[in-house]
Amino acid sequence: MRATLIKLCSCLGLLLIAFSSLAAIEVHEFDNDVDRKRYQSFVEEMRCPKCQNQNLAGTNSAIAMDLRRELVFMIKEGKSDKEIVDFMVERYGEFILYRPRLNSSTLLLWGAPVFLLIAGIILLLVIVRKRRTLDLASGESGLSAEEQARLTDLLNNTQDSTSHTNKQEKQ
Fold it and tell me: Where are the alpha helices (DSSP H) in the chain?
């Protein structure tokens, strides 16, 4: 009895797994390859209004399915890309576009990275120049007196041996 129940549950589990993969496929028929490519481009470039950071192609939410159906209908109706995008933006706002258009409301969005990059470079240059002028004004090299004396001796010895070697080569 128990063995039969285990076999029955196993078979039911396998059937559920097999049929669940068939339920997730959404197929749209287009008249030509150009319309299919337009549809694919739209579902990859438009964001799902409900899902966080997912495009229409990557989600199975109810609103994404509705939007995909609407896209198919509008493409088959012969609407241009601009008409489709304008309709979606009018209905859902600029949020639906992964790459929002450049206008007065999105100017900050597009300009902020450039502004921050330029401000960062200017700040870096100011800091480097201040440090350089402070180091030159203080005359300190960052070495202790003992280390500075040792460095001077090494440099003098190197210069003496170099000049001595040069004199020998000339003779």
Answer: 2-23, 33-45, 62-77, 81-92, 107-138, 145-170
Question: Per the CATH hierarchy, to which homologous superfamily does domain 25-96 belong?
Answer: Cytochrome C biogenesis protein (1.10.8.640)
Per the prediction, the chain carries an average pLDDT of 81
The overall longest dimension of the chain from CA atoms, in Å, is 111
pTM of the model: 0.51
The pLDDT value given to residue 71: 92
Angle at which helices 62-77 and 33-45 pack, to 10 degrees?
140
Shortest CA distance to 26 belongs to which of 1, 55, 60, 51? Answer: 60
Q: Which residues of the chain have pLDDT under 70?
A: 16, 18-26, 135-142, 160-171
Residue 66 · residue 56 · CB < 8 Å: no
Contact 48, 54 (CB under 8 A): yes
Spatial distance between the Cα atoms of 59 and 53, rounded to a whole number of angstroms: 10
Q: How far is CA 83 from CA 69, 72, 80, 86, in A?
A: 16, 13, 5, 5
